[in-house]
Design goal:
Layout (H helix, E strand, L loop, with lengths): L9 E6 L5 E5 L5 E3 L13 H12 L4 H8 L3 H22 L3 E2 L2 E11 L3 H7 L7 E10 L5 E7 L3 H14 E2 L3 E4 L4 H10 L5 E9 L14 E10 L10 H13 L14 H17 L10 H4 L9 H6 L1
Parallel strand pairs: 4-8, 5-9, 9-10
Antiparallel strand pairs: 1-2, 2-3, 5-6, 6-7, 10-11
Helix pairs in contact: 1-2, 3-8, 5-6
């Protein structure tokens, strides 16, 4: 190695606080470190610290809990999540596309950013980056893979964005089942109609809340009816139980989605990035108990269980 300024010979001059070799020029006496390839932008956090932070996040720890355990500043953790989230979203879009699937179940899971929608209305806030945030999830019944997801409002426009992502991830004919959310009726046909999918909805029927129920008690479900919407769906396979079980995994594995706590997201972008990391980890790194392999292995995308370091490199 030669000096970066005068190309003269250099000598070793110890290491910096992050373990990088330092050199000193024998002519101009300039000190510099060896070139370091950084896969996470300008972040200088050691790789083991990065992996430790991400492991805690995907296992359901909050930002401040992760900060106390790993001794990494909360702002650094948030910046790391943003960078890794962008990489994960891009990798999922590149690797999960044109898959042949059989049965896809779609559902939405509620959350909020900053404050709940009713509080936002009461305070007169108009920002689109706070309030109720709905995570749309498309779940393949047999491989347990999250094929597509989107974070948005519970509107027809955001539903179409979600079904467009599902169309990108799949190919050919398959069966789609959703709940009774009406915008699905237009969005699925618009995005997936050219693939000639079979589409049905499972509409659940609820009773009105009795006076004796508390404010957090859900309404009693008295039954459900299966409604064919498009194509020729097999009504015996109309089901949303698997994607609803996946919603429980999200609640348990993401501290931001845990209800009745103060760990909710304060910024929309951070919630989006955390969801991207969580779903990518679910598909490529976490072994599903019923499959004994990861969803990506079951779908034939990869032939081994990925580690977190391999996920970052990809």
């Amino acid at each position: 190695m030669t000096c970066q300024r005068c190309n003269a010979p250099v000598t070793r001059s110890g290491k910096d606080r992050y373990g990088h070799q330092r050199y000193r020029c024998t002519i101009c006496h300039v000190t510099f470190i060896e070139p370091v390839e950084r896969s996470l932008g300008n972040m200088i956090l050691a790789e083991q610290k990065v992996l430790s932070v991400l492991q805690h996040i995907v296992e359901g720890c909050s930002i401040r809990t992760t900060s106390r355990i790993t001794e990494v500043h909360p702002r650094t953790i948030l910046n790391l999540l943003t960078i890794v989230g962008e990489k994960c979203e891009r990798m999922m879009r590149e690797r999960i596309k044109g898959l042949a699937v059989k049965e896809v179940q779609c559902d939405e899971i509620w959350g909020f950013v900053g404050m709940k929608e009713k509080t936002k209305v009461r305070k007169g806030e108009t920002s689109d980056s706070i309030g109720d945030a709905w995570t749309f999830v498309a779940f393949e019944r047999h491989t347990k893979m999250v094929l597509a997801w989107d974070l948005g409002r519970r509107t027809e426009a955001d539903t179409i964005i979600f079904t467009d992502k599902l169309a990108h991830a799949t190919r050919g004919t398959f069966q789609v089942t959703t709940d009774g959310f009406k915008p699905y009726q237009h969005a699925v046909v618009l995005s997936l109609g050219v693939q000639h999918v079979d589409f049905a909805q499972l509409v659940k029927l609820y009773t009105s809340n009795p006076e004796s129920e508390t404010r957090y008690s859900p309404a009693e479900c008295t039954g459900a009816k299966k409604v064919p919407i498009y194509g020729d769906p097999d009504m015996a396979k109309v089901c949303t139980s698997h994607v609803e079980r996946q919603n429980l995994n999200i609640r348990m594995g993401m501290r931001r989605m845990t209800r009745l706590t103060n760990a909710f997201s304060k910024k929309w972008t951070k919630l989006y990035a955390t969801l991207a990391v969580f779903f990518t980890y679910h598909n490529f790194c976490r072994v599903h108990s019923s499959l004994r392999v990861t969803p990506a292995m079951e779908a034939g995308i990869t032939d081994h269980i990925w580690s977190l370091s391999e996920l970052l490199a990809a």
